[in-house]
Amino acid sequence: MIRDTQRSKVYKWDGTLPHKTLTLEEGKALVTRACRRYSKAIPFIANGRGTRIAYGSVTRISLPKWARTDITILHEVAHSIVQKELRYSVAFHGPEFMRVFIELLVWNKTDTLSNLLKSARIFRLKIGKIESHPKPIDFRKSLMHDIDRYIIEPYTKRYQVSPTEIRRIIKQRLK
Predict the structure, then answer these.
(1) How far apart are alpha carbons 129 and 27 in whole angstroms?
(2) pLDDT mean over 38-55
(3) Bridge pairing between strands 55-56 and 60-62
(4) How far apart are CA 91 and CA 113, in angstroms?
(5) 5, 80, 81, 95: which could form a disulfide with 126 (CB 3.0–4.6 Å)?
């Protein structure tokens, strides 16, 4: 386990961000949209009864009543995404986590990227480079990959037809 040197700074910083209180259902919807953005499995969302802490992991996010804000939910989703992608090879609140968390905040329209980066620098938070963290999926690339894998490749093998011919037929049918 890597030492988590930024933990208290991250909590102080995200406490200064503007937040919206959400219901548990709204929180579940936010988690679902954020996980789909990174093409990650959606963790089970627990209502947090009987616990005082919010908790995010690959398989479960616990949200007690006090934690049902967009900022806290995205904080826990960032944990889920980073742990899934990078396993436990990085600090829980390290630079990789901060990069994903900030991207989620920008995506959720909490604030602009430049404002979030400036405020994070004031709290002396380290933020990972773009190459060092999970990336949101590109819908078009993902769709084309799925079409190639699940439609074009099987038909090419089954009917001994070129991939170009199959793409031409698909385009004709979609017009």
Answers:
(1) 28
(2) 82
(3) antiparallel
(4) 23
(5) 95
Q: Output the DSSP codes for the chain.
A: ----TTHHHHHHHHTTS---B--HHHHHHHHHHHHHHTT-PPPEEE--TT-SS-EE-SSEEE--GGG-BHHHHHHHHHHHHHHHHHTTSS-TTSHHHHHHHHHHHHHTTSS-HHHHHHHHHHTT-----GGGS-----HHHHHHHHHIIIIIHHHHHHHT--HHHHHHHHHHHH-
DSSP lists the bridge partners of residue 56 as 61
| Among 82, 85, 106, 112, CA closest to 96 | 82
pLDDT for 72 equals 92
- Predicted confidence at residue 102, as pLDDT, reads 92
What is the predicted pLDDT for the residue at 168?
Answer: 85
CA distance 14 to 40: 24
Considering the entire predicted model, what is its pTM? Answer: 0.72
User: CA-CA distance, 26 to 17, in Å (whole number)?
Assistant: 19
Output b/e per residue, 6-27; b: 16+ Cβ within 10 A.
Answer: beebbeebbeebebeebeeeeb
CB 59 within 8 A of CB 43: yes
Q: Tell me the C-alpha distance between 116 and 105, whole Å.
A: 8
Domains of the chain by residue range: 7-132, 139-174
